[in-house]
Design goal:
The chain is mainly α. The chain has one domain: Glycogen Phosphorylase B (Rossmann fold, 3-Layer(aba) Sandwich), CATH 3.40.50.2000. It is 47% helix and 10% strand. It has 8 helices and 5 strands. A 3-stranded parallel sheet has the order 3-4-5, sandwiched between helices. Strands 1-2 form a two-stranded parallel ribbon. The two termini are 36 Å apart.
Length: 186
C-alpha cells in the first residue's frame, strides 16, 4: 500500500488480529533506522496469529494472490492497477487511499461501483486498529460486506465478458487496429 508509519503498522496488526479473520499481509521492510519489522508488531503478534495469518516481507505476486479462490477481500490503497486486478478477480475491497487520485478512486469504488467498503480515516489519514478491525470484519462477514461481495462477483463477470470474443472492450479495441483480420483478432 505504500510507506506507512511505525504507529500505523502497529494499528494494522492490532486490527487484523482483533478482526478474527484469516489474512495475508505483505509489509515492506521498515526504513533504514536500524529497527526490525518485528519491532512494530504488538508483542507476540506473529505467534498469536500464526494459525490465521501470514506476514510476508517486501513483496508478493498480487495478481496471483487476488486470483486465488480462497481470497475473500483486499485492503487496497485504491491505485488503479490494484483496482483493476481486484475487480477482474472478483475480490471486494476495503478502500484505504493514501495519495493523490486514490481518494477519488475510493469514492468511485464505494459509491458508484459498490465493490468496496470505506475505512474510516482521521483528518491526517490515520486509521485506527478499531477501524481496521471493523471494516475487515464487515467486508468478510457483515451484511454490507455481503452486498459488496456479490457486486464484486458481478463486476468480475462483466469485466470478463467485455474482453471475451465479441465483448464490448474487445470489439472497440479492434476498431482501432487496422487490418486486424477476419475474426476480429489482430
Amino acid at each position: 500500500m505504500g510507506v506507512l508509519s511505525k504507529k500505523q503498522l502497529r494499528e494494522i496488526a492490532i486490527g487484523l488480529e482483533k478482526s478474527g479473520q484469516r489474512f495475508l499481509w505483505v509489509v515492506r521492510d521498515p526504513p533504514l533506522d536500524g529497527s526490525d519489522l518485528e519491532d512494530f508488531y504488538p508483542e507476540g503478534f506473529l505467534t498469536r496469529t500464526g494459525d490465521k495469518g501470514l506476514v510476508v516481507k517486501n513483496w508478493a505476486p498480487q495478481q496471483a494472490i487476488l486470483s486465488h479462490g480462497s481470497v475473500g477481500g483486499f485492503v487496497s490503497h485504491c491505485g488503479w492497477n490494484s483496482i483493476l486486478e481486484s475487480v477482474v478477480a472478483g475480490v471486494p475491497m476495503v478502500a484505504w487511499p493514501l495519495y493523490a487520485e486514490q481518494k477519488l478512486n475510493r469514492v468511485y469504488l464505494v459509491k458508484e461501483l459498490k465493490v468496496a467498503v470505506e475505512v474510516k480515516m482521521s483528518a491526517d489519514d490515520f486509521v485506527t486498529a478499531e477501524a481496521v478491525e471493523e471494516k475487515v470484519r464487515e467486508l468478510m462477514v457483515g451484511e454490507e460486506g455481503e452486498i459488496v461481495r456479490e457486486r464484486a462477483l458481478e463486476m468480475c463477470r462483466r469485466a470478463k465478458a467485455a474482453v471475451d470474443e465479441g465483448g464490448c472492450s474487445r470489439v472497440e479495441l479492434f476498431k482501432l487496429i487496422p487490418n486486424h483480420g477476419s475474426r476480429g483478432e489482430p
